[in-house]
Amino acid sequence: MVDQDDMNRRVLLSLFCGMKFEGDVLAQLTEEDWASIKKMAVTHRLFPMVYWNQKDNPDIPKEFIELACSSYKKNAMRSLTLQRELLFINDLFNKAGIKFIPLKGGYLAWFAYPQPALRVNRDIDILVPKESIEAAYNLLTENGFVKYMPNLVEDMAQDEMHLPPLVSPLTKILIELHYYIFPQNDDINYENGMEVMGSYERVIEKEINNKKFSFLSPEDNLLHVILHTVYQHHLNNGPIILYDVAFLIKTHSINWQLFWNLAQKGKWELGCLLILSMVSNYFPDIEIEISEEISSRRASQEVLGEVEMLFLTPPNGIEYTRFYKQLVTSQGGFELFKNIVGIIFPKRKYLAKWFNDDIASSPLVWILLKYWYNLLVNKFPQYLLVNFGKEKRKDYARIKCFVDNK
Fold it and tell me: How many CA atoms within 13 Å lie on the side-chain side of 206?
């Protein structure tokens, strides 16, 4: 028997990707089903593209299309605000001689998607060379940008890819300065990763509103958006990745040999294969080159189906993926013990994120007590409810094993 929640997720994915429905699938959906689909669409920022693909579909409730239309128009206005912010930062950094590269949606919205309004951006991610990132951060704060979480610890950048986020004084848009963009492993890390991957050597130039910007090459861009989804967000940042990849490939000439060489440098080829296989499933007209050796390791349809479900898992469930990935993928013994200790006694930077207002003024013991209460009363029960079912646990473990080639 098909689970209705899973069915609703698949319906939303099909609406989002512009696929046709066979039979009376949409007619069978109840008002409750449409409410569930609406909630997922809002949560994962899918309405602009749903509107683009489904605005003339008579089988969709009028209220649903009207909401999608409203979201599309709002994002069109927001894209202009984002452009304004990018142009301001471009002028600011250029005058100071600071090199920078807008990442992800900061490039894709203008140079891959048919319209900027179709690519929703929560914030602006900017890559800055490590030697310049402190100067860039200080320059922004000197020009009115303020910390999103004022008490967030400064050592956040020691084991994360970006400095504490800033908020623009004019647009209130969140800005994150990154000095590193790849997952870490035995060969590639924060210290050597950008040099090993050679991304700065392949930078391209394009114009936004007659202003020159530097961007990652198409191959580095493609690799980055895939790795960001698979290895850094564990597939929990929604199906927007499908269009990010599809439009990037459709509008650019990809050097596939270079792309796969870069993926193999970091041992990320299976994660890339996973997403590219999903894109092929939904957009069979997109031309993707995969070598026979890599293609032979393609994920099964069962695993791809599990990825579909993870794409639209509620964030309040997936946020517990920090617990999820630590517990579910632990090999037992000492590793499991170490991960459980890490959950009970999190790093100070995580406490700063959750209890930002208290971190500067309250004793650590008091903050820990509040954290433990929240963990036991709110987070852990919901984590168990959303993510710890036997099948869900096996799903995540199967995907993790495939990506890690185990």
Answer: 15
How confident is the model over 44-59, as pLDDT tens digits?
999 999 999 999 999 9
Please, where are the H alpha helices in 269-363? 269-282, 292-295, 301-311, 315-318, 321-328, 333-344, 348-354
Quote the pTM value: 0.83
* Domain residue ranges of the chain, discontinuous segments joined by +: 217-312, 315-403
- What residue type is assigned to position 111 of the chain? F
Q: What's the token pair of residue 251?
A: 């509008």
Q: Which two structure tokens, joined as six digits, stand for 333?
A: 């013994």
Which H or E run includes 124?
Answer: strand 123-127
- pLDDT, mean of residues 157-182: 82
Q: Which two tokens stand for residue 264?
A: 């193999």
Parallel, antiparallel or unpaired: strands 174-178 and 123-127: parallel
Stated as kind and residue range, the H or E segment containing 101 is strand 101-102
Measured torsion, CA atoms of residues 179, 181, 183, 184, in degrees rounded to the nearest 10: -30
**299 backbone dihedrals φ, ψ, rounded to 5°:** -70, 150
pLDDT tens digit string along 321-349? 444 454 444 445 566 666 667 667 776 66
Coil vs helix vs strand at 113? coil
Distance of CA 176 to the CA centre of its chain: 14
**What single-letter amino acid sits at 83?**
Q
- Chain mean pLDDT for the chain: 83
